[in-house]
Amino acid sequence: MKLRFNFLKKKKFLIFDKVNSQFFLKYLNKNDTEILHCRREEFNFWILLKCLFCFKLNYKNYILFYIKKSDPRAVFTLIDNNRIFYELKRDLTCKTYSVQNGLRTEYEDFFSKEIIKPKNLSCDKIFVWNNKVGQEYHKFIKCKYVSIGSFKNNIHFHNDSNKKDEIIYISTYKNQTFNKKVYKNLTWGEFNRNEKALIEHIKNFCLANNFSLTVLGRYDEKRGEKDYFIKNFGKDFNFKYIPNSADRLTYTIPKKFKIAITIDSTLGYEMLAAGCKVALIGVRPDIYPFNTRNYLWPNYQKSKGFYWINDENIGYEDFASLLKSLLKKNKEEWDRELKIIREEVINYDPGNNIFLKETNLI
Questions:
Q1: Which of 122, 151, 225, 270 has the fewest CB atoms below 10 angstroms from its CB?
Q2: C-beta of residue 16 within 8 angstroms of C-beta of residue 85
């Protein structure tokens, strides 16, 4: 933890939480913008002192005093599931804007039925993937919701028309001890059990149809992810693994492939919005709340669809049939489905023009 002694200056804009702040700085002048660190990694001495003198020395009041001292025109956050952010508005005169950062479900998230929602939460505008999830926010947050899709995806909107005749699997790997409990009596091993069968299906499909496979890693190579896939694909199966890194072009790589496969990654949905063919295979345990991660909360469906299957015990024939059908769809067919995806699942606004207009940045 760092303690800073600088005197805060008034700024036009303030970003709540350094995490993901770089995406807002694509549109906000850095000289007009202050970043409020919200993970206790650093504190401003003078704001702490004010909290002490006012007998309000707690984290929420620290954040509130910090914002008031900066006196911004607007506060932005890409940490849309931080409850404290929505508790601040009633004590602020500036505008507050929240942006949905990723896939939202009822598992370990803001929307879980097992989490008691405090009253009097509010925000001027929440920018969401689609109107359905906006309605979920509106149930317990006083706000206007605006459908824009993925803010980050809208920044990286250039597509690749020359597709590799290959498949990419977008990993959702988590570096966890398999016998550790993830929820009540369910372990991480049981949570991931069905992915092993899916990996086998992907392997067999590639071998049967002469496809090369690339795995887009979630982590860098230090967390055992590559070894996990080597173990589950088998040492006799060759695939390319792309680890995560600060300079990886994550939003560009999947666009180069003929088809992407994922279970429930945010990036998979973002690639759908961008026009890529993506197969969503919902194999999470069919028990609450894990089944809300299947396609697509809050419009939870257990059926098969144009590009998805929700079945924790999916067989190879169904898996192969979905991929073959998806690969055969011509541009006209896919464009029709893409229109529905962008209206109902995840919107697409290249350049974030809707966001910029709604926040009076243009």
A1: 122
A2: yes
Full-prediction pTM beyond 0.85?
yes
d(CA 101, CA 82): 11
10, two tokens: 């008034």
Determine whether 264 is exposed, middle or buried from the number of CB atoms within 10 Å of its CB (0-12, 13-18, 19+).
buried
Q: Which residue has the tokens 């067919």?
A: 333
Q: How far apart are the first and last CA of the chain?
A: 37
The pLDDT tens digits for 42-77 are 999 999 999 999 988 899 999 999 999 999 999 999
Structure tokens at 26: 């694509």
The rounded distance, in Å, linking the Cα atoms of 44 and 52 is 13
- Tallying the residues shown for the chain, one arrives at 362
Instruction: Considering the chain, tell me which residue range(s) the CATH 3.40.50.2000 domain(s) occupy.
Output: 157-344
CATH architecture of 2-147: 3-Layer(aba) Sandwich (3.40)
Residues whose CB falls within 8 Å of the CB of residue 126, separated by 6 or more in sequence, listed in order: 80, 97, 98, 99, 100, 134, 137, 141, 143, 144, 145, 146
CA–CA distance, 38 with 78 (Å, rounded to integer)? 12
- Kindly give the interhelix angle for 266-273 and 331-344, rounded to the nearest 10 degrees: 120
Q: Which long-range contacts (CB under 8 A, 24 or more apart) does 137-146 make?
A: 141/86, 143/98, 146/354, 146/355, 146/358
- Within 10 angstroms of residue 166's Cβ, the number of other Cβ atoms is 15
Segment 272-323, tens digit of pLDDT:
999 999 999 999 998 888 888 887 778 766 688 999 999 999 999 999 999 9
d(CA 134, CA 119): 18
Place of tokens 């004590």: 91
